[in-house]
């Protein structure tokens, strides 16, 4: 055999071996439904993936009575020449439309203040997730006649709990495979933050507090709670409470720990802006971190409540009491659950409490 052929053979073997060891590193491991867009609706990816961008889409402008017909929405992508990697339906079903190893056309023109190099080419660095949802009247009027908007069923406006659950599962899965996407709000962004003059999605009805920014850690041999806490910039106590365990508990190799959501302060950050991004109040942020003043230092790590836990209202509960028990603001509970602040809680009512 000629040397050249040997190399060729070697190269092919490495490719095949790589495929066997890691057959689908760019494929989601959560269950998805194939709804692939034609290949012309994406391009080859050349850059590292560092961001996830969240959107909403619906067919409300054409059919306000049936805005979430998947075939109709698929048609919108085709007609407008845009695309996304994933789309999450009202019941939490996840559609796969473009492979992650290809660039989808979801972000368009815009810029993120923290990432000037990404101006107008965010698609190259990101994974797009569309949620089937409709925003507020103000957000939608530029694209839907007022009369049509007002005829939309109330249950079709905003996002569903099932969508948040699926989004959290999908994000977990994506971040497992793309280590350059940091699990914080500078890397998981909304379309409106990138294109504020053009886009309103995912908008005011999207509760960022329901997105789980906590992280998963799998214990390796010889690892101690102390080492893990140090690695993530949290305290041992933080991890222990978050995982409902004692801080002197014995760790098992392969055991999965949840690391509470943390935000690393970047230059020009303000408490107000950070709170806003996570859908929580400044008060909550101050309380959770025991801050004594509002001065922030670049690189500071802040603990942020994130993701939600289910709660069933018991006799004698008030919003105030639940908020106290879970150390979150009443406003956050109201917003996350879309409650009328003047309405009474019903026994047995299901609430979502952000962590
Ligand atoms: Zn969008």
Automatic annotation (TrEMBL):
PROSITE patterns: HTH_CROC1, LYSM. Pfam families: Amidase_2 (PF01510), LysM (PF01476). InterPro entries: Amidase/PGRP_sf (IPR036505), Amidase_domain (IPR002502), Cro/C1-type_HTH (IPR001387), LysM (IPR018392), LysM_dom_sf (IPR036779). Residues 215-259, 261-304, 309-353 form the LysM domain. It comes from the Bacteria. Transmembrane segments: none annotated. Residues 315-333 form the HTH cro/C1-type domain. PANTHER family: LYSM DOMAIN-CONTAINING GPI-ANCHORED PROTEIN 2, MEMBRANE-BOUND LYTIC MUREIN TRANSGLYCOSYLASE D. This is Autolysin.
